[in-house]
Fold Cytochrome P450.
Amino acid sequence: MQLVTAGLLALVLLGATIAHLVKLFRKINGPDKPPGPTQLPYLGRIHDLPIEYMWLKFKEWADLYGGNGFYRTQMLGAEFLIVTDEKVAEDLLVKRAKHNSDRPNIQSLFDSKSSNGSMEYLPLMGRNQYWARQRKLTHSYITEATNRRYNGVMYHEAKRWMARLIENPDDFQFSLEDMASKVMCQLTWDDSTLSEYCTKSAWGLLTQMSPAGPITNVLTPLWHLPLFMNPWKKAEHKRHDEQQEWWMARFLETRSKMANGEMRTCWTKQYIEKTALKTSISGDAEASCLLGMLALVGIFTVAGPLSYWLVTMVHHPDWQAAVQREIDEQCGGQPPTLEDAPKLPILRACIKETMRWKPNVPTGVAHETEVDDVYAGYFIPKGTRILPLDWAFLRNPVKYPDPETFRPERWLEPGWPTFQAPLTQFPTLKGMTSFGWGQRQCLGMSLTQDELIVACGSLAWCFNLKPKRDPTTGMELPVPLDKSNSLLIIKPDPFQMAFEPRSEERKLEALRLWKESDAKDRSDRAEFLQTAAAKRGEKAPAVAPIGNLPLGMPVISPNAVVSTTLACSFILLGNAITQSFMGVPALLVDFPHPSTPQHALAARHLGRQWPVFWQVGNVFFRPISTLGIFGYAYASYAAYKKAHSSSDWKFLAVSAVCHLITVIHSAVNMQPLNAKIDALSRDGVGKMGIKVDVSLAEHYARRWIKLNLVRVVMPAVAGSIALSQTVKGRLN
Ligand code: HEM
């Protein structure tokens, strides 16, 4: 009896469950709902939405259901509206930005939206007060840096990258990300040595926030397991705390360096010095996160298109050659600068087409609706996640005919729907759908564009990007076009390729450019520290070693050269004074008149003494004088090359000329006189049969004293000038 009751109860329960599921199924798939794949109660389409290459499945559904420019789907109860047409994105995310600019919660991050005041990750925050003030500040910092041309940081790092690629091409995936990271660390904390850790930290956050990251981002209930049996939460605690600590350490370090006057321009200094007093940012904790996040957000975002640039160029040698031609013609044999950008439409077109063809945030970033709404007759409930599917926008065949093919000409030739004139301004990356929409649109568009122009342009200037050959078979190793990770910001899977310098001269020039840039950077830093120490009334710290570059390239310090050379000038001066005013006059004391019998002996003695002067002047001091010519010429060149040197290259050139005059004068005027006096030792018959008048012995010696005055005056002038220039300013 009891068994029958239990059976009946089970049947009723089963029936009720089925009835409930059927009802729910009908409700969630009702005709009032926007079109989309059929949804299963509670699950939505979690069962057939792959985590890998999710955007491809979204696009597949877009082709089936996205006729209106959007479709809906669900995942474990979360409602999604996938937008596949730019016009719909404009309607929902720009025109209705006021209530469609929130962000969805990311389960595997603590308080990702900052609803509870954590204030940590600007791009992930809900549309709240923290987001508003951090966005405003971030925008103003980036804009200011853009206007300052990033203090030359991008050029410096691009040069370092070229040199690294020459020295260690196989490490290109690391050095590429490291370059992007160094730019951001330099801008944020004026310290490029932080790049490696910063990249790791950025990777940790990117993985944690992506659907393809921890399983708790998809199977969200797992996140709520108690801590002792929850490895995901434990790992996130560790990651989060370390990152926060590191950001705070950077902030405090900057502040303490500032107290000693040892911090150069950077965003953190700008904040502490200027912004902190007049901002609504709540204090150090929030500021350190704002700045730390700013450094992080510019790493993989920029590294992505840069990696795809390599892939694209390897597959399109014809376009690579066109970019190289353009740069060679327009940039005077040097890598492109931002001033050259208007003259480089082909480079810009290839960069933009790379980003269209291989977008690095292919799903787009979701917004969340804050109110119930109706769009195109369909009800959109509050809390819906609107996903602007960039992969679909960029493969729209009407806007981009032949969308699967890399065709930069679509930006360059009239007749293509995307062509825009003038070519000095277009194509530009700014406003691309890849940077998102409305109030949440990306703040790094200019920075991205500028960094890609500098980095991709430098690559094209320096290298032929080619497939690598297998050393044993000689076959080309494949560079896959469609293999990547599936994080929110994607990058190609590891691959191999070759970086072939375009010529030996280019290679040497690239190495020279880096050497020069590195030396200047070190000297600027040392000079800054010395000034800071002087202001504090302390002894100046030792100048950073110049000869020890990270790439193992020695460099000769112009400062060291000029100091050594001016020491030589004064040694020469001392010697010439001794000769003219002591040595030779001593030989002539009471010199007998030519009419006296003692004269012949005295003249012979004079001649025999003479080799000492000859040896000292010719063998020892003339080479030193010659070295002076080269030393001052090098210093003069260094001052000429150093844009803001306080040493004047023209004065140093005068010093070099003084030494030149001394050497020529010694050879042309003094040497014949030496030979004549030397001949006195053999009664007037010198080497190679030269005959001299012995009665003129004293006359020759006194003339020698007079001529030797040039060797007094010239080194004195050269040394004094060089000394004044060295005291005035550093050359390195
Ligand atoms: C190719 C490079 C980049 C791409 C494709 C990209 C893409 C995006 C996207 C899709 C969003 C979200 C937009 C939305 O919600 O509608 C975003 C937001 C953001 N991006 Fe970028 N980004 C790039 C580079 C950068 C760089 C270099 C920086 C900074 C240096 C940056 C800073 C930001 C910030 C701060 C936000 C958050 C804006 C907010 O939530 O209000 N991005 N980016």
